Amino acid sequence: MKKIPLPDLVNRLGQGAVAKALGVSAPAISKALGAGREIYVTEHGDGTFTAEELRPFPSQAARSQAA
């Protein structure tokens, strides 16, 4: 298994292919990229893909915005 940042995977496979692999629409991938979301895609040994987003815990996000 290997975790790949979403932008890197889109550069490698193309937006449509990544969307299909993750079971989402191409516009959803475009929106995530445009928003700069920190999404990592795991490429599994069987050829499937899963994605996860890293986000700060809500109280930490509020604290960093207040600073």
Question: How would you sum up this structure in a few lines?
Answer:
By secondary structure, this protein is of the alpha+beta class.
What do you see in this structure?
This protein has a single domain, classed as 2-Layer Sandwich (CRO Repressor), CATH 3.30.240.10. Helices cover 52% and strands 21% of the residues. It contains four helices and three strands. The longest helix has 10 residues. The radius of gyration is 14 Å and the shape is globular.
Helix/strand layout:
Blueprint: E1 2-5, H1 6-13, H2 15-22, H3 26-35, E2 39-43, E3 49-53, H4 58-66
Antiparallel strand pairs: 1-2, 2-3
For this entry, give a set of tags.
CRO Repressor; globular; alpha+beta; 67 residues
**Low-pLDDT segments:** none
Structural class: alpha+beta
Shape type: globular
Helical content band: 40-55%
Question: What value does the average pLDDT take?
Answer: 90
Question: Strands of the biggest beta sheet: in what spatial order?
Answer: 1-2-3
Number of strands: 3
CATH architecture: 2-Layer Sandwich
Distance between the termini: 38 Å
Helix run count? 4
Question: What is the count of structural domains?
Answer: 1
CATH superfamily: CRO Repressor
Order of helices and strands: EHHHEEH
What percentage of amino acids are in beta strands?
15-25%
- Which fold name corresponds to the CATH topology? CRO Repressor
Q: In the CATH hierarchy, what is the class?
A: Alpha Beta
Task: Please compute the radius of gyration using only Cα atoms.
Answer: 14 Å
For the biggest sheet, the summary is: 3 strands, antiparallel
